[in-house]
Fold these 2 entries.
Entry 1:
Amino acid sequence: MHAVAHVDLDALIWNYHFLRDKSAPAATAAAIKANAYGLGIIGIAPALQAAGCRTFFVAHFSEALTLRLILPDAKTEIIVLHGIQPHDYAEALARHITPTLNHLGDIENWRIFARQQEIFLEACVHLDSGINRLGLPLREQNQLADNHGLLDGIKVRAWMSHFARSEEFDISMTREQRRRFIEILNQLPPAPASLCNSSGIFWGKDYVFDLTRPGIALYGGNPMPMTDNPMHAVLTLKAPILQIRDVVAGDAVGYTSTYCFTKSGRVATLPCGYADGYHRALANRGKVKIGDHLAPVIGNVSMDLLTVDVTDIPEHIAHVGAMATIIGPHRPIDQVAVEAQTNAYEILTSLGPRVERIYSRP
Ligand SMILES: *Cc1c(COP(=O)(O)O)cnc(C)c1O
């Protein structure tokens, strides 16, 4: 009796094709970092590959190595957003893993390595257009524009940049980042360009350039939280009722007694706590679905358990062994995220390692 994450690969593939059609004529890669946003690269990566995805973005080199074991075909591109340290270059080359170069020092190291190998080496080059996080700052972009020789021996797979607030209703910052991106692209050697994450794709064809990099929308999160979610739900997280007890007025529930019954009722306990990804912030705020009924979370969320009020749910529906849906098509991750005062990304990537992932066959 434990929590189970059902991952709907048909929905994942529908989402990929939807984003691919919206991105066209640009190609559509997949952001698959953080173990495919918690859903598990072991199930997600082969399904995306079968759906036609040829390019995968991860954050860490270690993630790239794991992904390469799952997708051994060298024609499947794996790009490391955080870059690769020089002591890993030889292994990266052997495993066909492409670095992102985030500053001039990165570019120089990769250029020296290419010269040693006496071949052209591919790399993504990240140009910061306003997020001020990773990528060449404007000063370094201008140095590169003034001296293309800094790229000798490097075949630019893509010039890339990343939006800071593309999911917001107000497009002004997104538009400005696009303008800065084009301005610098015009001064650099021609190569494919990549600007859009999931939400960027929804601003239309002027934004997609040659390659898009959606993540959250593939996994069912709403790329544009201001509007209805066009994506299909991929994750259904369920847990069985372990125990039910009757309580009377004055009884309290859970650690530090944060919920107190004012009349008699029934409490159901589920094996899903914060170690499984059910945030403590959902204490006395979240809801789970049992049959067609919503049961409010009462009391604190503990490491391994949560408690819900099933007083108003008939006993033939809320009984020991009955499955509660914690996240699912009718309990959307974006809704749970609002209740937890976070976003869908954090809800997905919180899914604990001990939660069993079951992948439906596409
Ligand atoms: C995570 C990430 C993405 C994917 O973003 P989503 O908002 O999940 O679509 C794309 N590009 C970069 C650089 C990222 O770090």
Entry 2:
Amino acid sequence: MNTASLPRVSLLRGETPLHPLPRYSAALGHSGILLKRDDVMTLGMGGNKVRSLEFWLGEAKARGCDVVLVCGLPPSNLCRLTAAACCAVGLECRILHNGEAPHPGEAETGNQLLNRLMGVQRIYLGAVDEHARTRAAHDYADALRAEGRTPYLIGDEVTGALGYFEAARELALQCARDGVDLRHVVISASAGPTESGLMFGLAHFMPQVRVHLISVEYDETQFWHIAEEIFAGLRERVHLDVQPRQNARFYADWLGEGYGVPTAESIDAVRQLAGLEGVFMETTYNAKTLAGLRGLIARSDLPQNETVCLWHTGGAPALFGQAAALCAPPNC
Ligand SMILES: *Cc1c(COP(=O)(O)O)cnc(C)c1O
């Protein structure tokens, strides 16, 4: 039931805030919406990937690796936070982007600007799909090994999920300390490690909590296939036999046209939260989850008198690259 024996580096410097959203709750006619602020961390402008990186980089160090590889689109939060964590622990980081290099002299923004400031090496693969990107990463790792280097490739889902198993423990402690009778958690459902680790941890530490997963990427069958594999890995790693799926509900109702494509209701939800609470969310993940929270309250899937925690997974720097969607008519 413990992760204490697993390799981990310390990146968080304490817990992230959990606080009420009084004006937003009142606007939605709900008695208590709390926000878990994984966008508020000291490292690299924060975000959910920091919790996973504690275990990924722990594993990299335990294996004696001397260079960390990470793959993602140019605006990826994962790439920015991997670079930041590597800077902080003194490991070389190389980013492989499936996308085109910036034009010479181009003023980069968002995560790309932050990557530039950190001075990490960026390799552009062009507009290839994720399979081609993964192949390229393995080839790149082989080439490094031939040079005598020891690369670590970021992304093992089970290792990454350990960070969110620990996040569930953190939330349980916060609720106990603050006297919060938490009944629901609402979080984005995407590639898996974050929400699967959290579901697994909550099923153990807070079995009274129901997890509401708002899809921003996959349909229900695809999602549970990924999540069940992560659960199986976690059962072995932390020696707990919990069945998280019993406590969870999955909704694809707010996905719209798919991953990364904003919906009108998500943009409206972002504005409402910003205007009522001064809290910002980007459009790929949290905006759709916010629209989902609003919809679940409206149709009473979230009873108005049961305390709910919305999990902010970060990504605010990506917002600056999303101006076109946020400012296009009829949104402006
Ligand atoms: C990566 C990311 C997610 C999704 O996390 P997964 O573990 O891949 O499901 C959610 N929100 C933000 C801001 C992210 O960067």
